[in-house]
Write a structure and sequence with these properties.
With 295 residues, the protein is mostly helical. It is built from 15 helices and no strands. It is globular.
Length: 295
């Protein structure tokens, strides 16, 4: 299969996630959804590992790397999706989607702070462009009367972006096979989510078929399968940049599904904010090339 097709399938799959979150959270508590979807994800990843590696599934695994992956699993999926699901429960899907997508901005900032990467003028400009997108969301596009108002849900969505960027910084030091690492992360996340469900005694464990189907869908088409497809695409492509750029289609496809399936009216300010954020991220990605050409 063409690597571009693998990548597009992953992008399309991720594009449906925001809509699935909102629909599922009408049926189930956020923490319970984290548990169920993470459990389904770990089962699916284990099956994928059986298919790919067969009897060699855990052969040669470094115990230190395995423990590292399990530690990371506390951050993602447990903490990350708990915050993200609460955000989707308390704000419009389009706003949660866009604010969560700012994780790329925080990844650059954290790379400068923790990885000691030098920031170039064009990178700084790209950050300001993306941050302007956040300002548009915060002001509902009313820039002439500059009053920033973040709802609790929007603050949680922005927090989820910070958590996701932190996850990627930490995960950069994890040398384990990415699919095996994901398996241990989601297995650990499901265990911690289950413990949290037990501690939060008001969570209703009476599951119906709809809840199970939504959880299975999120576990399959947000947390596991698209990541595997994306890893395969990046590993086998001869043009990494071309494949990587396809990820920027995802939020626009997501807005389409949010509008059609959830019936949310996509505000012009939301679309413009997303444009600024994506343009900033793309400029950041190509800042080194542009900088060399200009200088």
């Amino acid at each position: 299969m063409n690597t571009t097709l693998y990548a597009l399938l992953a992008v399309f799959s991720w594009s449906t996630a925001a809509t699935a979150f909102k629909l599922a959270l009408n049926q189930v508590h956020p923490i319970l959804l984290v548990f169920l979807s993470s459990l389904f994800s770990s089962i699916i990843l284990f099956i994928i590992l059986l298919i790919i590696k067969r009897s060699r599934i855990f052969k040669g695994i470094n115990p230190k790397n395995m423990l590292k992956s399990m530690e990371i699993g506390i951050l993602n999926p447990f903490i990350y999706y708990s915050v993200l699901f609460y955000a989707y429960r308390q704000t419009m899907a389009q706003e949660a989607l866009i604010l969560n997508y700012t994780w790329g901005i925080f990844l650059v900032i954290f790379s400068i702070i923790f990885l000691k990467q030098k920031i170039k003028p064009l990178s700084l400009i790209s950050l300001f462009i993306s941050f302007f997108g956040i300002v548009i969301i915060a002001t509902k596009g009313n820039l002439l009367h500059f009053t920033i108002s973040f709802s609790k849900g929007n603050i949680l969505a922005l927090s989820s972006a910070i958590i996701w960027a932190t996850y990627w910084i930490i995960n950069m030091k994890n040398s384990e096979d990415p699919i095996i690492s994901l398996f241990f992360q989601f297995l650990t996340g499901s265990i911690f989510a289950f413990i949290a469900c037990i501690l939060l005694q008001y969570i209703d464990f009476n599951l119906n078929l709809t809840t199970i189907l939504y959880s299975a869908y999120i576990g399959a088409f947000e947390m596991s399968i698209p990541f595997v497809l994306w890893f395969i695409a990046l590993k086998n492509t001869t043009n990494t940049a071309k494949v990587a750029n396809l990820i920027y289609l995802s939020p626009f496809f997501s807005l389409f599904f949010i509008s059609v399936i959830l019936g949310e009216t996509i505000h012009s300010s939301s679309f413009i904010a997303l444009l600024f954020i994506v343009i900033g991220l793309i400029l950041q990605q190509y800042s080194d090339i542009l900088y060399k050409n200009i200088v």
